[in-house]
């Protein structure tokens, strides 16, 4: 699974389980991208003329679900779901320390860090762009906490910035102060719900359990 794998595919839609270390879109360097990987997969199936278009993107080191449109006619429906927040996407994140129990919504605007072009930062009210992240503790073990995270908005580095602003940066996130990890950045796009752009059926897509984050799926996590 060096390049990941398809977890859902039909004539208009494809969901791919992205590995770490690969860009979703090209950055001008000519490096191979996830879009290239998906195009190669489609060509191997004989769908040579199909041009995949990523509906979402993940950071290079974030793993998990990336949705691709395979049909220009239905892509506006997917784009509208993204813009209107009708797609629900759940992430798994591991942080060092004992995260408080229960569920909370982090409501803090996000803007660019004026001192480091690579970073974003949590801002005071009235600054940056509005951003809300829903966070729930799932499990604690060995000095780490597993969190279920849902985005109410979609700002750059939103989960990473919001968790770091709480004093719980993601393990492996050196950019935002996270402890080093041999497993890389412990952030995974795990589950997504959306309306199929043709049938209207509500789809619930989910990757295999990411054992690199947490060895076993906790009981009761649905």
Mind explaining what this structure looks like?
The structure is a single chain. By secondary structure, this protein is mostly beta strands. The chain is built from three helices and twelve strands. Strands 1, 2, 3, 4, 5, 6, 9, 10, 11 and 12 form a ten-stranded mixed beta sheet that branches. The protein has a two-stranded antiparallel ribbon with strand order 7-8. The mean pLDDT is 94.
Specify the number of helices. 3
How much helix is in the residues? Answer: 10-25%
Q: Largest beta sheet, briefly?
A: 10 strands, mixed
Radius of gyration: 18 Å
Rough outline = globular
The helix/strand order is EEHEEHEEEEEEHEE
How is this fold's topology laid out?
Elements: E1 5-9, E2 13-18, H1 34-44, E3 53-54, E4 63-69, H2 75-83, E5 88-96, E6 103-107, E7 110-112, E8 120-122, E9 132-141, E10 144-151, H3 158-165, E11 187-195, E12 202-206
Parallel strand pairs: 4-11
Antiparallel strand pairs: 1-2, 2-4, 3-4, 5-10, 5-11, 6-9, 7-8, 9-10, 11-12
Protein name: RNA pseudouridylate synthase
Pfam family, one: PseudoU_synth_2
Catalytic activity: a uridine in RNA = a pseudouridine in RNA
